[in-house]
Amino acid sequence: MHEVAVTQAIIAAITEKTGEARIRLVRLEIGVLSGVLADAVRFCFDLVAEGTTVEGATLVVDEPPGSARCRDCGGEFGADHLILLCPACGSAHADVLSGGELRIKSVEVSPECAGPAGARA
Amino acid sequence: MCGTCGCSSVTVELEQRVLARNDDLARRNREWLAERQVLAVNLMSSPGAGKTTLLERTIRGLGGEPVVSVVEGDQETAIDAERIRATGCRAVQVNTGAGCHLDASMLARALRELDPPRRSVVFVENVGNLVCPALFDLGESYRVVIMSVTEGADKPLKYPHMFGTADLVVLNKVDLAPHLDFAVDTFAGHLRQVNQRAEVLPLSASTGAGVGAWCGQLRDWA
After folding, report:
1. What are the beta bridge partners of residue A25?
2. What are phi and psi of B136, to 5 degrees?
3. CB distance A82–B17 less than 8 Å?
4. What is the pLDDT along chain A (121 residues), one digit of tens a residue?
5. CB contact under 8 A, B2 and A24
6. pLDDT of residue B154
7. Is A87 helix (H, G, I), strand (E, B) or coil?
8. Residue B19 sits at the chain A interface (C-beta within 8 Å)
9. B143 strand-pairing partners
């Protein structure tokens, strides 16, 4: 399950940017074509965040739907998996337009808050 | 306002790619390899597809020109690195423990230890897994997915991320094809649905059939 490694990367990137500040909320963007399962990140988020400034933060995950553009007919279509098949002309030559996102959008920080007892500030 | 102490909270826009750090390390690996004119080939497959057997055969097939060294990735044991060393080739074993893939920092450490000579080839045998390694750029020059005929022709459709990322697909164990219901055309058709550029190179690492074409491809890349 690479989502543990992905979640570790998320926590590390956040703490690198925000230092000692307590994190209240984390907003991620995990597209349906990204290769990362949003539910698996939700599952391990609290565990990976334990002992860091992100511990106890609320996790909000936006899951942009997938879309693609056909290279042959130029048509755009929705895609919920990576087997891209243009519904208009049947071509498999298509480029992903959206759904591949794997980003940390923003965090809410409380600069002065020491956080819950037991957690590292 | 936060519920713990009543302090005010502020939103910090990060807009950062989750794998930015890995991708940055991968870019540094790529630069390190380019400076030394080293070709790095990331070999990925399910467990048992024949990566190590193909490497043993490839090392013999290339006959030291170019020089080959190997980074072996496995969760546990140094069995594969020992197999490679038995061919006379240098190998570094990376054990990922609970990890299911190699990442760019692991390869960076392994490359420093391996210290490959200039104008040589480094094979990176990734952890046997058709899911997780697809996501992590190592800084490799090429990605090769190895698939054996015993695994079934539908695998590209079941693992589109992995097959979609391949520069070349090696179809291994073709000597077993007469005993199996495996249609190469069907497989190639499924591959085309997720990857329009990767060619299929059929071979048998155990009999050596097709290994000459594979070695030719490697020499072209190097």
Report:
1. A58, A108
2. -110, 110
3. no
4. 689 999 999 999 999 999 999 999 999 999 999 999 999 999 999 999 999 999 999 999 999 999 999 999 999 999 999 999 999 999 989 999 999 999 999 999 986 655 554 444 3
5. yes
6. 95
7. coil
8. yes
9. B42
Q: Cα A115 to chain center, whole Å?
A: 24
Closest residue on chain A to B162 (Cα):
A35
Two structure tokens written together for A99? 């759904």
Q: Which of A1, A2, A54, A95 is the best mutation test for B, with the most CBs of B within 10 A?
A: A2
Closest CA to A88 of A68, A63, A108: A68
| pLDDT confidence band for B97 (50 / 70 / 90) | confident
pLDDT attached to residue B207: 97
Residue with tokens 């790529």: B30
pTM: 0.89
Beta bridge partners of A68: A77, A96
Chain B contacts of A104, Cβ < 8 Å?
A: 14-18
Tell me which residue of A99, A15, A6 sits closest to A57, measured CA to CA: A15
Identity at B195, one-letter amino acid code: N
